[in-house]
Amino acid sequence: MSRTLPTSAPIPARERLGFAAFILVSVVFALFFLLPIVWSFANSFKPAAEALAHPVALFSKAFSLENYRRLNTVGAGWTVYAGNSVMIALGTVVLTVLVAVPAGYGFSKFRFPGQSALFIVVMATMMIPFQSILTPLFLILKVLKLQNNLFGLVLIYVTFQLPFSIFMMRNAFDAVPRALIEAARIDGASQWTILRRIMLPIALPGVATIAMFAFLNSWNEFLAALIFLSDQNKFTLPIMLVNVSSGIYGIIDWGALQAGVTVTMVPCIILFLLLQRYYVRGLTAGAVK
Amino acid sequence: MASTAQRPTQTVTAASNDPEPKGWLGLAFMAPSLVFILGLFVVPLVMALWMSLHNWPLLGRRKFIGLGNYAELLADMQLWHSLGFTLLYTVLVTAAIMAVALPLALLVDRPLRLAGFFRTVYFMPVVIGFGAASTLWMWLLNPDNGVFAHLLRGLGLVDSAPRPLESFWPALGVIILMVVWKTAGFTMVILLTGLQAIPADVTEAAKIDGAGVFSRFRRITLPLMRNSLLLALVLNVTSSMLAFDQFFIITQGGPSNSTISAVFSIYLASFSSYRLGYGSAMSFVLLVVLVAISSIQLAFLRQRPEES
Predict the structure, then answer these.
(1) Which of B9, B125, B263 sits opposite A33 (nearest CB)?
(2) Among partner residues B135, B242, B279, which is closest to A261 by beta-carbon distance?
(3) pLDDT less than 50: residues of chain A
(4) pLDDT tens digit string along A168-193?
(5) CA distances from B134 to A27, A75, B155, B208 (A)
(6) How far is B272 from chain A (nearest CA, A)?
(7) Whole-prediction pTM value?
(8) Which of A60, A130, A201, B184 is the most exposed place for a label (fewest CB within 10 A)?
């Protein structure tokens, strides 16, 4: 780039024009992706009259929490649904990590006959859509007496997360240098100590990735929650949203709906902004393998 | 890939290099995950096949009917319609997503802080669930106090608020717009990894040889990012074939059942009419179609262009 500098005037001008075009196009796209989120957020704090008159306004003169209060009178109230969603998401995160980390370690550092076939079976489940096994799962949960039960849903979500999580963790453990493990073993460290003291610290970014995917996917999942939860007190936030959006006696409370959308999406956005690089790492793991 | 770095040390100690003294111990580490996958994935999969051969109501006696459900599928017009609709949706939405995501990837593929900021912004809707995104767009689109209605009227483009959900093509159009908004950032990131893997000196050399922007894009960028383009295609096609949330929430299958997707019809058969056997047969057909699609596309992915 700096080579072109001596030829002076015309090129920097062209570059500046190119940069201006880049900014202009980027900003237009940014508005397209950001505005719906901002609109919903802004309208959740507007009093009803103002939301009806000026839905487009990003700032309102009056600030009100009435939408959130009304949302708390829908069914069991949004705080109950948010609590259910938090419990399901945290349960899925904890169980996924507890199950997938040892499995990834096993696939990475041990060899036994039939092991690669087993790995192929685990990965093949990634190709099979979970939507196609919901009907039998419905019966299995019934037999296990876990139908209409938050823990039952957690078990299902963990299973859906496992193939990807095991794949991620195996790659994370593959990155641990063999020499390090051998040195520890010579020093008399047990298998368990090696996993805890040497492997896990190196594999920690992988753990963050699978935990984040487990959280977002279970927080946002809709179809399985719709099918497996039938008791009004056990719904998750997405199911609550659909109930609000289908209205009562044909009248939809749009203000309460915006409050619901806000409490559902804001945690995801905050989590993403905080842990962005772990998320993108998970996405690109498939792309560059 | 990662193992290539370790190979030299392995061959040195080859004779005694059995990776772990106690290989079977690994099975103990995997055991919990295998219980999950076996109990809640493999068993249901086999059960789905078994159930599809039965007349299996939720309550009451089930009866073995062989391929009866599959025979019924062939004659089920609503099902064929929903499969056709799912294919139409998949083709249109995949094309739309690619058409937006590729320019986005090219746009933000620069070593600027600002480009990183825009990448984050474009990606943000991806982390919002389809449930929240669908209800959010229901509000944006509603004719009474929706933002779009207000904007269009404010600009004087329309006299009365448009009601896009009341006829087929406008309804499909707004759903596609919503899905592009929600998922283009995801495809952008996949394509970006492909773009960034293109060695800078290749582009540089072409520039010196006098290749213009368009021929560089067509002759160098596109062929070299072939793998990530294909991967993006696979992921978009499979996820669109399984679309459910947006049709259940925004259009509710309407107008007049014209936007019932494949998964939606499975949902209706199994959990609305409680015909579990018939629902399983539909699931199985969908499964075969999807596995076929992804294995064909993955086979294409395997044959990489010769790389150093």
Answers:
(1) B125
(2) B135
(3) 1-8, 287-289
(4) 999 888 888 888 888 888 888 887 88
(5) 24, 20, 25, 49
(6) 10
(7) 0.88
(8) A201
